[in-house]
Amino acid sequence: MTTASNKVLALFGPTASGKTELLSRLFLDTDRPFPRPVVVVSADSVQVYRGLDIGAAKPDAGLKARLPHRLIDIREPSEPISVGDYVGLADAACEEAIRSGALPVLSGGTAFYIKAFILGLPSAPVADVRVRAELEAELATRGQALLRAELERVDPVSAARIKPNDTYRLTRALEVYRSSGRPLSSYALPDRPRARWDVLPLAIDRPRAELYARVEQRVDAMVKAGLADELRALVAKGYGPEDPGMRAIGYAEFFELGGGDAERGLARMDEAVGLVKLRTRRYAKRQLTFMRALPGVEWFSADDLPGVRARILAWLG
Questions:
Q1: Domain residues for 144?
Q2: Within this chain, do residues 51 and 71 fall inside the same structural domain, yes or no?
């Protein structure tokens, strides 16, 4: 049943589309105050990591002081976070916001987080601690290549979906197969919204050329803001290319160009920046494709503040 106590606004879009700007204009405009307090629940798989500030384009302290954000800086870069972890944390954050009288606003660009929050998780088995431990030991002794070869034999569909260095999802897919005897890809994906929340899914977009230009400007701004020093600080703390946080766009390229050595990659700054821009543009394109496949999404121009505001207010009643 839809009630005021289970409403969640989902406001999302591709990277560099202007989500943070729109949040500020919607909810912090003193001339047109929003009728309810708001808590932003981040849906960003990089902003969860502490220390990845510039490269993750995190909201600054001033904005967070005026507009509370949740699920930012909740993991060390060495700690994986699964989609299931995220959904559980987002559910708790939304419940907390509602108890405080605020409207939870799920906002970000990690499309599989948003999809899982709205539709729920696949029906795959829960984690098997014993099998997981066995796989972690095999990964350390046999290496990733042999585990990937095994997954390609038993679950080629999942193997094709998992990126080369994503050892967490690689071992998770093998864990499911070994514990259940079925490939992960055989488990049904949900296609209807969860009954737990009444979600209004709104997405923003820009013309493709404009979006790509904003991507380039954002990357240049990150470099100017000190991305190189941020990466050096992370390396000094012991983080490297094998850590989940360091595999994000904006960090991984320096390790890659340096053969695993970030400092050598930083010596090829122009090349690295070009690669970051290329991969970010490609990522934005994939985000749009994924987001357009979500059911019930209403799309708005990123500059259509009146339209977005009117739709939210009508939904709130």
A1: 129-186
A2: yes
**Are 230 and 176 contained in the same domain?**
no
* DSSP string for the chain: ---GGGEEEEEE-STTS-HHHHHHHHHS-SSS--SS-EEEEE--TTTTBTT--TTTTPPPHHHHHHS-EESSS-B-TTS---HHHHHHHHHHHHHHHHHTTPEEEEEES-HHHHHHHHH----PPPP-HHHHHHHHHHHHHH-HHHHHHHHHHH-HHHHHHS-TT-HHHHHHHHHHHHHHSS-GGGSPPP-S--TT-EEEEEEEE--HHHHHHHHHHHHHHHHHHTHHHHHHHHHHTT--TTSGGGGSTTTHHHHHHTTT-HHHHHTTHHHHHHHHHHHHHHHHHHHHHHHHTSTT-EEEETT-HHHHHHHHHHHH-
Domain count, the chain: 2
217-229 residue pLDDT tens: 999 999 999 999 9
**Are residues 102 and 27 part of one domain?**
yes
**Are 240 and 141 found together in one domain?**
no
- The tens digit of pLDDT for each residue in 42-79 reads 999 999 999 999 999 999 999 999 999 999 999 999 99
